Amino acid sequence: MPTDAFDMAIVHKVFRSELHDFPALIRSVTAGDTARSAVVGSHIELIMAALHHHHAAEDELIWPKLHCRAPEFAEAVARMEQAHRAIAVADAKVKSALTSWARTADARLAAQLLEAVADLSARVDEHLADEERNIVPLINQHITAEEWQQCAARGSEFISRKNFRLGLVLGGLTFDVSSADEARRLLSHIPRLQRILIRVFARRTLMRYRAALEGSRTAAMSPEPSALQIIENFRTCELTTMSRDGSPQTWPICPLLLPDGRFLICTSIGLPQKAFNIRRNPKVSMLFSEPTGSGFDNPGAVLVQGDAIAEDRIIADLRENRDLRRLFEQVCARQPASAFMSSWLGRQLFPFYYVRLAIQVTPYRILHWPTRDFSQNPRRFDFEELSHVD
Predict the structure, then answer these.
(1) Which ranges carry the Pyridoxamine 5'-phosphate oxidase N-terminal domain (predicted)?
(2) Is residue 263 a contact partner of residue 216, using CB atoms and an 8 Å limit?
């Protein structure tokens, strides 16, 4: 019976997303901060191990069968095998640089690691696109559902009882890039006990993992943080909009800074006063002035003034795209009480909590008070610093 390898594209999303995040993680480590380089190094090792075993499963269980059952496509299958060999070479270069860098946090080694990661990521991107376009249809036609399940099991063989938590992390990453329908289909192929464990523990395990990964970034910050560090690490800020009568209305929010310099916010559809105000008057401000939990000893403050757009589209699934997923993860990491709301039980009891509207803020003025002395004139912030590699 032919299979439906829909899950191939989902797994590939995880690899693309995580590989693309490697450069930002590496750059977030200051020279000599071996505590953080060890945390980042462990994360990179986890993703690369998952990629290696994913490819090993295909090499052992899929390519030989396709050579026999679809000989007319031998050239395409051989191209997959060659790509795996090239990726293995690039993988080895990353591991070589990673081992030394994770131990020393040396700036020169970081540059070598970034170069190796860029090469690996480019090769993986090209290969995954080729595989999805030309090989997945062959798998659907020539590989049985049972054989495909065997391949999936082989790909996760490196997860054992000793590192089961990492399996939950990978499961959480997979379901975070899945739509609600894709998640349902994925779970239907998993044994009952594992399905229950994933539903109950995967998301909260991923949140704790992400919090630790981001938390180690805070420890690396300088005692007098820059405006960008304040924006990226303060737990909350104050969003101010103008009400109908012209008076200001303020809410605590946790915005996500996007790579292009805009900010992403979400609000509930239940009386979305933020959205109502913004649609009448798009001028808003965001004040980053509360440093609790940021890890900074002597923080400043940042005021962002911008134009906001409140989208009409209702978001029923906060995992539907990468930016929304990152915003959700950031909120959960910075507000641990959100762990219950993100659990399976919380979703069943409060489904309305996840129905949202997106708000995007485009800054036109950013002011920075390095010492939080608001009697002093602030510094104007360079917008070029907001646009960052993601």
Answers:
(1) 228-308
(2) no
Cα 29 from Cα 21, distance rounded (Å): 13
Alpha helix ranges (H) inside the chain: 6-27, 34-61, 63-69, 74-104, 107-134, 136-142, 145-155, 164-176, 180-188, 192-197, 203-219, 227-233, 273-280, 322-334, 338-341, 344-349
> Homologous superfamily of 227-316+355-385 in CATH?
Electron Transport, Fmn-binding Protein; Chain A (2.30.110.10)
Q: What is the tens place of the pLDDT at every residue in 80-137?
A: 999 999 999 999 999 999 999 999 999 999 999 999 999 999 999 999 999 999 999 9
Q: Which of 33, 222, 201, 15 is nearest to 121 (CA)?
A: 15
Token pair, residue 122, equals 């480019």
* pLDDT tens digits for range 39-65: 999 999 999 999 999 999 999 999 999
Nearest to residue 381, comparing CAs of 308, 305, 307?
305
Residue 75 amino acid letter: E
